[in-house]
TrEMBL record, chains A, B:
In the C-terminal section; belongs to the class-I pyridoxal-phosphate-dependent aminotransferase family. Belongs to the class-I pyridoxal-phosphate-dependent aminotransferase family. Its cofactor is pyridoxal 5'-phosphate. This is GntR family transcriptional regulator. Keywords: Aminotransferase, DNA-binding, Pyridoxal phosphate, Transcription, Transcription regulation, Transferase. Residues 77-109 are annotated as: Disordered.
Length: 489, 489
């Protein structure tokens, strides 16, 4: 079969199966010829054949595209397309938890959601670093790493960063993960079985709730106040568990610094008390320190892990918040026999995190550069936090708001009678996006009076503009003394 | 506090906690000064202070190093260091499955283990592509992606590659994962609960066995012959399950092309029969096509997924084997309600695969370039397969060996009386590494008579040299007619 026929046949298949969708552009004949190592004439002939079959349309200036209406004889139904068909019984009733909710996007939307500000990512420097790694290490950087626990050099770098934060651990305790999210997922996989009780702060990080629920855990909430998790309530709860002879909780998930969503930090005395409870009751503590080094005021409190001399605490950190989330590199610090089981879990889950990215990150993150970036980012985000405070004071004076000492999030108590879910819709109508409090509670209803605002993602002038829009949305929902909303007056 | 004091304090902490281990080299004062944005004098003064405290040693030519013996007052015990201490009860007895077994390394070792040949990775081209992505997309490439199921453009590219292999699916069916390993891990997470029965080929890919075991599955093996999985045995097994009213198996894990470890491929008629059994008995099929496009002889058989019009098959592929494993990018093709649950599992597990690598791969993998690379790699690996065949015929004529039509692995039946585990040690003593058959069976004993050789990882001359060493190891273990090994004569 001549080459052009083979090419034509392949393209015909791609078009009729929908792999090349209607209206998609085919490569230029020059590019495709170069790619395939064939002559331009071959490609041109194949394209001409497809055109005469009505499968593609060529137009001067816009290249060759898949025809908007395909000849019916050539089109089969793709398996994913069938609607209303029956699926095998094991596929169940698609009982998903909450769908991944994406807020509105676009340049006009002021989004108080998401993570850090892309404008703060060190893109060019990191690009140079990747180039250096590929130039010096070549194919080695594109292989599996020698150790499923992560690149040894990056693990050493992590211990140096941790030491600068008062956590002294050897590199053997560090397990590199795909973000701190995977650190929690692995711990879940190793320690939590369906039906196990897991303790969480309430409110807490929504994707931790979803992960733990997906693992079949029975979640029990412990309330958070301005000084973090209520350790007194935790003590009562554990004691009750013990007296009733119920199986011990399998995990305590806690975010001690600039908690997500409340921004509160666990006080030093509570950290000690929490660790003591974990010891006495034999409950592992998962310490999620997703943004502990992003501090804007006050002094750091030692990590719970730094108080732990007995392998009670699993500590997770990440480079996502400070550097760039697209890397997806975080780490878990863990001591004791469970460490080996977690390394095994990491290996069988994905054979290790991309070595190229680990090597590039290791080369990029000298302690000095990390500290420099931290200072720069900290300055930027602190200004934004303060801008949010001022804007809220001016435009939403009756909203409750405690200034967080660091991190990314502010937790706002809405004026009486305004519900966060209703507000979400009203706010989106006005081009502003927030996270409704309901996402962060075991019973969504408990979060009806709060919203979470990420102040770090955008410059100050947009923050101010966003709060003005938000205030307008709140005003439209305010309950008047007679009990009807102002909108209905 | 003066700057040099702050720096000194920080370094002191790093040294005393062990984060900067004994004998490790500190950065040059010039490099550290540049990193921190301070003067070289500041760094020099801090280093001098540390030196007079006995914490570092400076030597001309080799820079400044952490002192080999630290002053005892400055050294605390790192938590990971305690040996013989007691760990909390929940840490259990460290009941790990097999430890991650790393064979011998070094330039003198001929290793018939691992995956593809790093020399075949398109390192320079890929480096250029990453640079282009960072230059054109900037910070966007370092953010979370817009969709936890993966970059939409890469998903489209995957459908085009699949279409060229006869699998017609829309991009919405594709979920990008961290290698095909994670595709299986996610399916495990969503479909398999502890105690569930899972059917596997026997022998099969060892890390699939370890993953499924870690998930608490009860594994049941179905034998493989020269035409792949014995579908007749599968039919009996499923029928028995049904008659005994036992819960249906939760999953059937199968590698239809160039099976790992046997190299056998599932015949076309068996593919149809297998799918029909899956339909009738309501068992989901996980089709692991880790190297299906690496074919060296014969004609391709359609993927089981391509026969499936009802969402019975979950199909996994990967870029690891053909391009480079360090990327850690693979994909799962899945239709029906379970798809949304798998996307949710991906999201809560790691918030998605690195967008930077997804974008770079998408830009890199035009269909033409993929096909070119496939042809080049295929030629290379076929020569190596043939070199292995010749070497075995010459040096180990009484070993059984069926020529695989593609993939990476040859499955070798050892001469009578030679056990693979003993051979592994004898071979390593002679500088050659193999995978013993015991790894691939539910009862390791069943694999005592086989070894798996990866013929793709090294050039032909090393293959020949390795087989010579292997033959020597085998000869040292041969059982003589009188029943003692030749070594003992």
């Amino acid at each position: 079969m001549p080459l052009y026929r083979q090419l034509e046949g392949w393209l015909r298949d791609a078009i009729t199966t929908g792999a090349l969708p209607v209206d998609s552009r085919l490569p230029s004949s020059r590019a495709l010829a170069a790619d395939l190592g064939v002559s331009r004439v071959t490609v041109g002939t194949a394209y001409a054949e497809l055109e005469s079959a009505g499968l593609v349309v060529a137009a001067v200036g816009s290249g060759t595209r898949v025809a908007p209406v395909l000849p019916t004889t050539a089109v089969g139904a793709a398996p994913g397309d069938r609607r209303g068909g029956t699926w095998p019984a094991w596929q169940g009733s698609a009982e998903t938890s909450e769908p991944a909710e994406a807020g509105p996007r676009g340049p006009d939307v002021v989004a108080f959601t998401g993570v850090g500000d892309p404008a703060a990512y060190p893109v060019a420097e990191f690009g140079r670093t990747i180039r250096q790694v590929l130039a010096r290490e070549g194919a080695a950087a594109l292989s599996y790493g020698p150790d499923p626990a992560g690149d040894p050099s990056l693990r050493r770098t992590v211990t140096q960063l941790l030491a600068s934060q008062g956590i002294g651990v050897p590199p053997e305790s560090v397990l590199i993960t795909s973000g701190s999210q995977q650190a929690l997922a692995l711990v879940c996989q190793v320690l939590v079985r369906p039906g196990d009780t897991v303790l969480v702060e309430e409110p807490t990080y929504d994707l931790a709730l979803r992960l733990l629920r997906a693992a079949g855990a029975q979640l029990v909430g412990v309330p958070v106040d301005g000084h973090g998790l209520r350790v007194d309530v935790l003590a009562e709860l554990l004691e009750r568990h013990r007296l009733l002879d119920r199986p011990r909780p399998r995990l305590l998930y806690v975010v001690p610094n600039f908690q997500n969503p409340t921004g509160a930090s666990l006080s030093g005395s509570r950290r000690h008390a929490l660790l003591e409870l974990a010891r006495v009751h034999g409950v592992p503590v998962f310490e999620d320190d997703f943004a502990g080094d992003l501090r804007y005021s006050g002094r750091a409190t030692p990590a719970i892990k730094s108080l732990d001399d007995g392998g009670h605490v699993l500590y997770a950190g990440t480079f996502s918040k400070l550097l760039m989330p697209g890397l997806r590199i975080g780490y878990l610090v863990v001591d004791g026999p469970v460490r080996q089981r977690l390394v095994e879990a990491k290996q069988v889950t994905d054979l290790g995190t991309s070595l190229l990215l680990q090597r590039a990150l290791d080369r990029f993150v000298t302690v000095g550069r990390y500290q420099t970036n931290l200072r720069r980012t900290g300055r930027l985000y602190r200004e934004r936090r303060d801008a949010l405070r001022s804007a809220l004071a001016e435009h939403l004076p009756d909203a409750g708001f405690a200034l967080p000492a660091g991190g990314l999030f502010a937790w706002v108590a809405l004026p009486a009678g305004v519900r966060s879910d209703t507000l979400l819709r009203a706010a989106r109508d006005r081009g502003v996006d927030v996270a409704p409090g309901s996402r962060f509670f075991l019973r969504p209803e408990d979060g009806a009076g709060h919203i979470r605002l990420n102040f770090a993602v955008q410059p100050q002038e947009r923050i101010a503009a966003g709060v003005v829009r938000l205030a307008a949305a709140v005003d439209s929902l305010r309950v008047t003394p007679s009990g009807t909303s102002s909108r209905q007056r």
